[in-house]
Design brief:
By secondary structure, the chain is of the alpha+beta class. It is built from nine helices and 18 strands. Bound molecules: adenosine monophosphate (AMP) and magnesium ion.
Amino acid sequence: MAAAGGLAVVLCGCGGPSVRQQTSVDTAMGTIVSQTLYVEEADGTDREAAPESTMESACATVMEIVKELEQRELSWRIEGSEVARINGLADERDSEEGQSPGQEKGIAVSVSPPMRDILTQIWQVSEDSGGALDVTLGRLSRLWNLDGREESGDGTAFSGVPADGQIQAALDQTGYGRVGFWEDGITLPPGMQLDLGAVGKGIACDRIRAYLLSQPQITGAVVAVGGSVVTYGQKSDGSPWKVAIVHPREEGNYLGLLSLTGEQFVSTSGDYERYVMVDGVRYHHILDPATGYPACSDLCSVTVVCGSGLLADALSTACFVLGSEQGMGLAEIYGAEALLVEEDGTMHMTEGMKMIFSALE
Ligand code: AMP
Ligand code: MG
């Protein structure tokens, strides 16, 4: 079982006589990328078409796709990425002009067609979740040092609990509703900073699936990018793909297994992934955009299954913030399957989730 984020890929059965199977584990996007590929044996002796070389180059390409997505498009930390460029423009103008209270200056920034598509989908989830998902909270995620990489940090998440005043000041520079969309770009208030951390791994899964579709020799695959997984194609024995859901409170244990077909995406968001305990309070990496503090719903883990990596990732974060009742409602709007777990272990499942989830005793 290869563990990655809140999910683990379970490999059962063999590749069969004419299909080779290989698993490899690497890191990208600050997380573990675990991929298992099934490749059909080619006829003849063409070395280029040998399954080993197909495997090797496919594995390398998958890693490249994830790294390029981070470096060129999504990372707010990497100079030259599209998000860093957008943030840089908003930041520059903020320090140049300052802000007059009550007067919103919009900064028009052009964005690439793929980024516009990504942002449009995210904004829809923000609207449908009443702002529970809000990728304009970049100022807040930096303040909380959610990924532990700020210079003052010691390499672990969180440098301490920020003061209320700092949180309020960062909160003042957030708000998805303050961003305008126009044909070639977006208009955002000075100082606002985007953080696409809630959807990046899901988008990586979408890109991986598009690549796998273009590779006829690859008959099946399951790839986990941290807490987001894509299943593709079939195993040669026809059995379903199995993905295990990490137990949110028992390290090394699993809540249960999902049985999946070859066109699904899974994302898990949990308060156990990155957190610190301070005076008995768990400070974790999923923020409530309404308060600026870590979300304090009745949930400790949310898993969403649907036909889009971006949506599975966006919805798992949003449902976590919303809590069990509203979270179920949001999943239903998207026809997604959801498993919501409360602190005391109580599980809430959509009807479809009940069919594909089996609890581990
Ligand atoms: P995930 O693990 O997919 O639930 O995403 C968590 C990451 O998304 C955090 O590390 C932040 O970078 C960012 N984030 C945290 N809370 C939110 C939120 N409510 N809306 C959008 N992004 C968030
Ligand atoms: Mg997410």
